[in-house]
Amino acid sequence: MKTTLILTLALWAATHAPAAWSKDDPAAGAKLYASHCTACHGADRAGMPGAFPALTDIGKRMTPVQIKEKISKGGGLMPPFSHLSQQEIDDISSYLAK
């Protein structure tokens, strides 16, 4: 009985693992984008010509590593988002790649 309970709890924990253990989550990235990026890049990711670049098709211009580095370190007018976790950066990057 005790072994069954332990195995049941272990299985439950494995199927309900925290998001930090999961793969990139574009849906979570969309929420993060809405709260951190839309003010400059717009809800449609079209940006503002001359000020903030469009992020549509960003995956054709930058590698995933470059996108993640830009998010975390910033550059130009973009501030660094170093307060975001690596999982959050991965999620935003995954959303932008869609």
What is this entry, summarized?
By secondary structure, the chain is mostly helical.
Describe it for me?
There is one protein chain. By secondary structure, the protein is an all-alpha fold. Helices cover 56% and strands 0% of the residues. Helix 5 (64-73) packs across helix 6 (86-97). The longest helix has 14 residues, at 2-15. It is globular and about 35 Å long.
* Category by helix and strand content: mainly alpha
Which blocks of ≥5 consecutive residues have pLDDT under 50?
A: 15-20
What's the gyration radius in Å?
Answer: 18 Å
Oligomer: single chain
Helix content: 55-70%
The N- to C-terminal Cα distance equals: 47 Å
Tally of helical segments: 6
Largest sheet: none
Q: How would you state the average pLDDT, rounded?
A: 85
Question: What's the SSE pattern?
Answer: HHHHHH
Shape: globular
How large a portion of the residues is in β-strands, by DSSP E? Answer: under 5%
Total beta-strand segments: 0
